[in-house]
C-alpha cells in the first residue's frame, strides 16, 4: 500500500502543501452577518454590475481568485491550475471564470462540498510535485440557486423551518509547494452516502450522515484526538444537521462537541437574519474558510482545523424521478507547524 | 519549478501510472457502428431495464466501472478513488453510480472532455502515491442529453448538418501504480478557450480552438514528433471540427494529419448512420478509448497514443443569456514501454 495513505481512507501529505493566501467576496446579506469583518469584499448589490445573477456569481469567484493571487504577490500566469466549480448547471460561473483567468482548468462538482473537494485535489497535486501554485475556489448565489433548484424568486415561496439559505459568496485559496502559511496535513475523501431523505428542504438531515461517515473515517484512520483541534467546521449542515452530526458521532465514540461548529451557522445570525436552519451553498464553507477560518489560522489563533464541506448531490431531475438525496463530505486538516 | 513539469503546461509522470484495465458499454445505435467489436456490452434497449434514461445512464457507467475492476481481478473495496462525471445537471448519473459503488468520490465536470480530465487527475494521484487504484469513467446518453440541452425527443426536431449525435455509451479505466498495461506518460491540461461561436449546433467549430491550444502546448512543451504517435484522437470534434483542428495546427507548424482521428468519427458510420458531423458526448471519447483504443494499445498494435477529449462548457442558461461557448480540451499521452 502507498505510504502516503493511513488506514482505509486518509491521506497524509508529506511535503506540506501550504495555503499561502485566501480571499473571499460576499453579498449584502452575508456582509451583515457575524463574520463580516473577515471578508475581503462585501457587495452593495448582488448583481455586482452584471446583467444576470449567473454572471455576477462568476465575477464574484473571479474576484476572489484574483485577490488570492494578488495577496500572495503572484500573477495569474504563475498559477499552474485552477480547480473550481459551483452549483449551477454545467458550472456556468466557474467555466466563465476559467475563460477569463486563462489558467489550465479542472472543473469539479461536489455541490456544497466543492471547497473541500478542490482543496483535497489541489493539496495532492502540489504535494506530488505536479504544480507549484494552484488556485482553488467556489461560489454560490442565492438568486441563481433558488431559481435553478427551487422556484423563481418572484413567486415569493415560503420555506419550512428545516430549510437553509443559500449564501451569496465566493472563496478561494492559493496552495503552493513553498511559502508561508498554514499547511494541509491530512485529507479524507468522502463516499456518497444516502440514508433515504427525499426532502430538498431538509438538506441538513440528508447531509449529516455523509459528514459523520467522513469524520469518523478520519478519526478511525488516524486515532487523532478531537480535542487536539481548535475547530472542526462542517459546512453547510445548518442547525439541525449539526446537532445530528454531533449526536451520532458521540454515539460512535467520537466526541467533537467542544470544538465543533458549522459554516452555515457561522455565516448568518440565525436569530436575526431569518435564514431558518442557517446558510448553505458552495459559497458558505468557501467564504467562511477563506475569510474567518483562514484569518484565524494565519494569526495563530487557530493552529489545527478540520474543514468538512458537505454536499447534497441531488438534481431537480432526480427529485422529480422520486429519488432520495445522495450526499458527500470531504475533510481537510490544516495545521500551523511549530 | 517542479521537475515533473515540462515547458509551460505539460506534466511528465515519473512512476508510470498504468491503465490496467478498461471497459465500455454502448447503446444499440453505437453497437451498429464501425467499432462495435471492441465494446464489452452493447445494449438492446437504451433504457437498460430502468425507469428513466438518467437511471439507465447511471447504470451504464456503473457497469463499465464494475467490469473494469472485474477484468483486473479487483474488488470495489480495493479501489481508493472514483473520479467521474457526465453532462447531466448535478452529475445525476455519476453521483448515483458513486452511491452504488461506495468508493470515495471526486465529481468532475468537463462536459465531453471529462474522460481525459478524469485520466489526468487519476494519473497524477497514482503517480504521486496518493492511491493504489483509481477508477475513472464517464457516460452520456442521447436521450438524457437531448432533453436537457436541446428539445424533448417527442418534438422530433431537425438539426443542421453541423450538429453531432450524442453517444449513448460509457467507458471506464482502472489506473494503478503497478500491474501490466499501457502507461500514462504525459498530460497537458486545457485552458478554457472561446473564439466567439454561439451556435450550440456547431460544437465542432466551437471546440476545435481548445483542442488546437492544448495539442500545440503539448508539442511546444515536449518538442515531440507528431509522427512518433500511432494515433492522436480528439474527441468529439466531428468531421468539421477535425478538419479545422488539422488545418490550423498545420498553419502553426504541427502536422498531425498522418496519425489523426476524432472519436466522433470513429464511433459512427457517418455515411450510413445519419449522425451529421459525427458522435459527441462524454461517452464518445470514453467508449472509443476504453473500447477500440485501449484494446489496440493492449495488443501492441498501438504503442503511443494521445487522447484529447474536448468539451463545450456552455449551459442552456448561458445560451439564453446570449453568451458564447467556452471550451476546453485535455491531452493524455499513453505509451507501451519497451
From TrEMBL, chains A, B:
One example GO MF annotation: acyltransferase activity
InterPro entries: SpoVAD, SpoVAD_sf, Thiolase-like
NCBIfam families xrefs: PRK08304.1, spore_V_AD
Protein name in UniProt: Stage V sporulation protein AD
Species of provenance: Romboutsia lituseburensis DSM 797
Source lineage: Bacteria, Bacillati, Bacillota, Clostridia, Peptostreptococcales
